[in-house]
Known about the structure:
Elements: H1 3-17, H2 31-34, H3 52-66, H4 80-83, E1 96-97, E2 103-104, E3 110-112, E4 120-126, E5 131-135, E6 145-148, E7 155-164, E8 175-176, E9 183-190, E10 197-206, H5 220-232, E11 241-246, H6 248-252, E12 259-265, E13 273-280, E14 284-286, H7 288-297, E15 315-316, H8 329-347, H9 355-389
Parallel strand pairs: 1-8, 2-15, 10-13, 10-14
Antiparallel strand pairs: 3-6, 4-5, 4-11, 5-7, 6-7, 7-9, 9-10, 12-13, 12-15
Helix pairs in contact: 5-7
Amino acid sequence: MKARDVCIIYLLFISVSGTQWNYGDLGPDIWSEHYPSCDGQSQSPINILTASRDVCIIYLLFISVSGTQWNYGDLGPDIWSEHYPSCDGQSQSPINILTACTVYKDFKPFTFISTHDEKHYFTLKNNGHTIIGTINNEYKQSPIQLTGGGLNGTFEFVNFHLHWGENYKSGSEHQINGVKYAGEIHFVYQNPVTSQIAVLGMFMQSYLHKKRFVFDKNDLTRDEWHRYFDTAKTLTSENDSILFDSNITLLMGENLQDFWRYEGSLTTPPCTEGIIWTVFKRPIIFMEEEFKHLRDNVYFEDYRGPQPLYNRTVYRNFHSEKLSSIPDYNRCLLDFQYEKAMNIISLFGVINCTARSFFFFLLVIYFILLFILFVVFRKMRYSVERKKNE
């Protein structure tokens, strides 16, 4: 039986077997005879005896108070799991990619549908956490689609957004052997059939961090992002939005051949897991001044630190690194144990950047105590021998 037929039969069943009501002889005045709730003390609609603007403000305040808030400050990543349990899962993103522990796997190249290089109209919006770009539905536009890259089926573009930090030495969510980039771009795609989400991450390298780098005057990707920054820096308040026309081909660039692949999560609450992550090896180069505009005018920083890898495998699709296809599991195990230790330490309020100093301090205390015990033991032994001689 077709779904449409079922729908019609269902509606007829309701109208025939259910108690009748309408807006005439069986109207609102007698609804309570068959539906007691219609005579309750919290019914709608009501006659609002105040300014509609005030009512709207009260409603919005209620939403903001009752809804669980999160940010990158006092309600930051360290406590997200209190309200979003998935944020404490064992398949979280981002991660620190240890290249010696990656496994080679042959992924087919990404293939973009022909409309991928067309110009599209995006809405750039300050959503209270970052600047996010989505397709503007007011314009008739073909979907942006891609296949390949080890993904099953055709994926459609959902949004792109940026993460950045307080300076050019931090800001990327993923790290490569502990090295951070100035920022990271996420292009989010979804399979409309399976609802599987795939995120394509690209590092943003600051020009200041690569002082001798000379921009290619014919770099169209560089020019397109310059346009983006000029537009995005005006979105200084939450819910500010603006139209931005571009094409994904230029924004993503041409360096899509080499990448890492693993299964992770969204990097923001609710931290949903089961996300297919692609992290491209080659970064896109930016000017430090452009990041400064975002830090000064939009948000100071908006990134989550690396999460434990646990027993996940990170794949790579390139041979260019001087690595065998079989990882050094001894080193990976040590790195994993170190990673676990760092997480335990962080629970006691010791952040990773001071962990080595903390261990050194404990080591010094340990040797001081040993020395004191040695001196006390020598004195006791000397005292005993002296009494024997007397």
